[in-house]
Design a protein that fits this description.
UDP-n-acetylglucosamine1-carboxyvinyl-transferase, Chain, 2 domains, 4-stranded mixed beta sheet, 30% helix, elongated
């Protein structure tokens, strides 16, 4: 099994080009079921994307990858289509359930494995099924599979989500795209990745609009058969490396970004005393000595992302005073805390809140990754720790970070995979 070896205390200096967004690419890949020929640019070459590609291939889509250019070409010629997503392809990546909506929309039937257990919480598909039932789908659960039918096609309706859910919002949009009549979704997630999905669908022939947390989806009667789309940059990857630069950067510049999307993250880091210059499509972070404490809660976008909570916690270990993070999205998202404590962090958990006392000196240790974002928080901690850190189970990292070692090595970090 592969591990990462990191020798800390080496200042970061250089440039990092941010990859395409994993969380934007996955629903767009699911949406490709709706069209005939699609070209996707700026896709990240990470494990979750390859898993989704295998899922689409198993359904019957023809896919080629130009890895050197980060381009995917997808063709759906309506031959030998299997409207089934098996457990072996859904168990490692919950986004597999997103094919449910487009399969129902185009083929009026779908059989999708219930996703496997998730390390950071239950993340149930109840809201996905709630929305699809409102659109007229008949749904039953049998032998661990969601079996859905809409023999007469889906019908547009009004849906108000009881809770904000990114995945359920995406599945509802995809299902409603070809539904008869207009669909109005209320209390939606409006993450930039969802906005990028809507941009893709509008390029496909849709006329979807977002007004606050309302999404209006008219029936798309004429779907274009040939569409090219560029995936948005990965704001979570950017946030991760910005925190790395804040921790131990001398001068690190980030390219291929849109700073309007991450303006709240920029303001948060500035509030913590991080020195930076942000322009329209780039950010530069400089050595920051006096890191200030802060209290924050995770919230749906435009609030602070749960996917950056673990990384920010590492920065808080170096802030002067007591900082707090309250986790409002997932119930088990503090599993990195015991590993950070093994490295010397002073953290206590109480009522969904992590209380972090700093600044503390971190020391290298052998640690274990438990999920994607937790694993990268250990990388950040290792960059500032004395001596060597060994990170086990790094397959979690490979799910969502493209060329992580290469990007950090280019900024002088001492990191290698064994």
């Amino acid at each position: 099994m592969q591990k990462l070896l990191i020798n800390g205390k080496k200042e970061l200096f250089g440039k990092i080009s941010i990859s395409g967004s994993k969380n934007a690419t996955l629903p767009i890949l699911a949406a490709s079921i709706l069209s005939n020929k699609i070209k996707l640019k700026n896709i990240p070459l990470v494990k979750d994307i390859f898993t989704m590609i295998e899922l689409l291939k198993s359904i019957g889509l023809k896919i080629t990858i130009l890895k050197k250019k980060n381009i995917l070409n997808i063709r759906n010629i309506d031959q030998n289509i299997k409207t089934v997503a098996p457990y072996k392809l859904v168990k490692t990546m919950r986004a597999g359930v997103l094919v449910l909506g487009p399969l129902l929309a185009r083929y009026k039937t779908a059989k999708i494995s219930l996703p496997g257990g998730c390390a950071i919480g239950t993340r149930p598909v109840d809201l996905h099924l709630f929305a699809l039932k409102k659109l007229g789908a008949k749904i039953r659960i049998k032998n661990g599979y969601i079996i859905a039918e809409a023999k007469s096609g889906l019908k547009g309706t009004k849906i108000t989500f009881p809770n904000i859910s990114v995945g359920a919002t995406e599945n509802a949009i995809l299902a409603a795209f070809k539904a008869k009549g207009k669909t109005i979704l209320n209390n939606c997630a409006i993450e930039p990745e969802i906005q990028n999905l809507i941009l893709f669908l509008n390029n496909l022939g849709g006329n979807i609009k977002i007004i606050g947390r309302k999404i209006i989806i008219p029936n798309c009667k004429n779907i274009k058969k040939d569409v090219t789309h560029k995936v948005i940059f990965d704001r979570i990857e950017l946030g991760t490396y910005m925190i790395a630069a804040a921790l131990i950067g001398k001068k690190v510049k980030f390219k291929n970004v849109d700073t309007r999307i991450v303006k709240n993250d920029i303001q948060l880091l500035k509030k913590m005393g991080i020195k930076m210059i942000s322009k329209k499509s780039s950010i530069e972070i400089f050595k920051s000595k006096n890191i200030k404490k802060i209290n924050i809660e995770t919230r749906p976008y435009p609030g602070f992302a749960t996917d950056l909570q673990a990384q920010l916690m590492v920065l808080m270990t170096q802030a002067k005073g007591i900082s707090k993070i309250k986790e409002n999205i997932f119930e088990n998202r503090f599993m990195h805390v015991p590993e950070l404590k093994r490295m010397g962090a002073n953290i206590k958990i109480s009522n969904k809140t992590a209380i972090i006392k700093g600044p503390t000196k971190l020391t290298g240790a052998e640690v274990m990754a438990t999920d994607l974002r937790a694993s990268v928080s250990l990388v950040l901690a290792a960059l500032i720790a004395d001596n060597r850190t060994i990170i086990n189970r790094i397959y979690h990292l490979d799910r969502g970070y493209e060329y992580l070692e290469k990007k950090l090595k280019n900024c002088k970090a001492r990191i290698k995979r064994i």
